[in-house]
Amino acid sequence: MTVQLLAEYRPGYGLPRESYLSEAVYAEEQARIFRRNWFFAGHSIELAGAGAYLTLDVGNAPVVIVRDGDGELHGHLNICRHRGSIICTSEQGRAARLTCPYHSWTYALDGRLIAAPTMGAEFDKAAHRLKPVQVAEFDGLVFVNLAENPAPIDALRDHLSPVLSSQGMGRAKIAVMRDYTLDLNWKLVVENNRECYHCTANHSEYVSVQYDTENDNPALRAEIAERLVDCSTRWEKAGLDISRVNTSSDSAADWFRANRTPVRRGMITESPDGQAVCTVLMGGFNDPDMGTARANTNINFWCHANADYAHTVRITPVSPTRTIVRGYWLVDEMAEEGRDYDADRVAAFHHQVMMEDWEICRRQWRGVTAPGFEPGPYSPLKEQNVDRYIRWYAGQMSRHS
Predict the structure, then answer these.
(1) Which ranges constitute the DSSP H helices of 63-185?
(2) N or C: which end of the chain has fewer CB within 10 A?
(3) pLDDT > 80? residue 341
(4) Model-level pTM?
């Protein structure tokens, strides 16, 4: 962030107007945040089998992730070392080797250049392998990092995995995948996701299933306490980690969080009526009432995984004024559409929540980009996670290279 904008930012308050509009700020974000941190790329099941590849943009850089014959994932910049052509032009596919469509330079799946027609006998192919991108895979999730010396994935994995490992996302299939193109800055999407201050007024269906808005409601204090005891007891017997079972969404770490929360009494999952949307449960669960395993990172990821389905989100900034949000809905790999689930019903709950959120974000976008906008203070009781997120963001944007 520019020196002037950093001077204008006050901890405990929102970001100044130009933070959302400036091309210079956006370019710094791509370099300082998206090309230096672990970016959620997608799911392991999108890369099933030798030669399966996935392409995406990370920090405005084209990336390809591919699985080799030994099952290992490799990440590369999707840029030919000859004249800079994009190599893999499809979002997903399968290939025994990666061949540039421009001049047929050909690379092994691990990035080695193995053919460079007419370059002569003295040409050093070993010096022209694809530029590597770090890849990490756990619990059915795939992350990439473009930094030359990335921070280890360990802290993120060790925090998320105790909560997510039981959810079976590595033994799933994609029931629904939807992209939402939003003509607004990516930070508004993340900020909105970091609080439920807005939920009562905007997400009636979500509020009917989850306890987020009721943690300070005296009338429900006893019910929540009883529900927590009952669920924790059952879940511990089922072998789940219960160290982070609560109804709070407070962050517990610098740039990520995970917890398991019970849904409301009488409900078993996040659906319009709180009842299961897939009869084949994920993760080998026998009990459909296993709560919601929730996780997020400040970079571009959040997840709500129930016993019957999991919902994940990938955020990709395209420009200061455009963002693509991809929603995934996963079910167990043995579930059969039309017999065990209906795809529209699986997606219904979180699609509705997101459509409501996009309208919120659009209204906010009109306001924060208007002349005269002045950021207001965050609620210390309801928006502490947004404040943490913005403080983290400001720290990322001001740290030395």
Answers:
(1) 154-164
(2) C
(3) yes
(4) 0.97
